[in-house]
## 1
Amino acid sequence: MNIVFREVKNNPDEIRAVKDFLYGQIMEVYGIGPTPKFHYDIDGMDEYYLLPPANNFYIALEGDEIIATAAIRAYDVDNELFRGIYSKEDTASIWRLMVDKNYRRHGIARKLVIIMEEFAKGVGYDRIYLHTHRYLESGIPFWTSAGYEITIEEDDYDETTHMIKYLS
């Protein structure tokens, strides 16, 4: 495998290819199509990831094929569980980490996480927040092995687990 990791360019054709990859992954993993309530950031990639200097979106490519994605942005979710704890000034959040099933278990996700953590440190974040779901078989084991700690496990319909990692 000759995999290249890089930032997404603010190019309409590349953005379209990233969206197609993401929506294909979301259909495969979650069984749902594009849903504005959950996927507003995908539809507005430039606004959420490409234009703000403290945010970014990454892809992994083999040749011209997108095989994985990952995004990082300032914490901007209005979740009552974390009001007054996380802010867009000191906390980044990870989004859209998706790896094509044919490329899993090859260190691609881990490399994307390292890239995002280095970016977050470089722009001045103190910590990184994320959420995953307990029904995703490898979610929590992957994130804990990368140094993320569980903060809250919700008993919601989506089995949401909130996690944090402090950057040093």
Note: The longest strand covers residues 65-74.
## 2
Amino acid sequence: MTAAAALFLSVGAAAPAFAADPSPNPSAAAAQLCTDLNKLRSDATALSGLNPASATKDQVKDAYNDVKGGWDTVGKSKATWNAAQKEAVKSAADGLKKTWDDLPDDTTGAEAATKLKPQAQTLDSAVKSARTGLKCPG
């Protein structure tokens, strides 16, 4: 991708000169990234919204796996987006993974939900910022 096209997608400026981008379909890639970020944000919100008083270990595991799958999809995106925002989302996802990996095997659902909540909220915030930077609809 040309530097000009990267700048276009990262700051959202519009100019006809960027129409000659060599990528197959940068607008389709960006639209797919927005869709994938929406799902990741929804999954992070669901994880952070689990009630520690009633969350089971399986519910927490399922919610975490949804977030992990969402990040895996976002991480494979071919769209060009702001490097700082991408790094913020990656860092938040990595923090969530580290917290998950550090949970002892005998952790209860309540303990897991409580420990994962701050990291899920950080991921939600990073994804929200990335979506704003990409000018995702909705």
Note: The CA atoms of residues 52 and 113 lie 5 Å apart.
## 3
Amino acid sequence: MTPRRLEDGYWRAYHDFYRWSNIWRGSAAQPGPHERLRHLAYAGGWKKFEPAWDLLIRSKRVVRALPALERTLAAFGGRG
């Protein structure tokens, strides 16, 4: 297998795994509505908006987004 085929296969699997239908299915498998919403927000927000995160990181502006991210995560709380 060539490095190019390996990388192409990786990205194909990545896109298949993080389809909205799979994110919803993963969310539905969570034990309660709070956990389902947390899963949706995390998986959807991180994986489906990855280009926006990449731009923030590359432009060194992610620190400015940190308060909003912390508020969002804190709204879901912890398990314990």
Note: The mean pLDDT is 85.
